[in-house]
Amino acid sequence: MDIPAAPVNVTVRQLQANSAVVSWEVPDGDAVIGYAISQQKKDVRMLRLIQEVNTTTRSCVLWDLEENTEYIVHVQSITLSGVSPASDPISFWTPKEAEKSASKGNAKLKCFNRMAYDH
To answer: Quick one: pLDDT band at residue 86, thresholds 50, 70, 90?
Structure first.
């Protein structure tokens, strides 16, 4: 049995000061039974590993992030054959809490922010 291919098209969306959603796609042919998502602050050695098994969901909410901080995320597929190599690293910045609410005076922007941040 072959080792599965790494997930592709990893993206980070719904960025908030303290959370974000990471999503990805899986190359055809791999019977994926779960995923491992690693998250770390840039220039910090500590790593958070989130492992999900018995799932076909291709997204994960990252919680307890710090505002105005750069993070790096990798995703791996888990199959019965083993764990894939890590995806290409994705880097993102969480916004400052003040930036999220700075648009209160502008109704058009406020509506956009509400839609973008709802879960």
So the answer is: very high
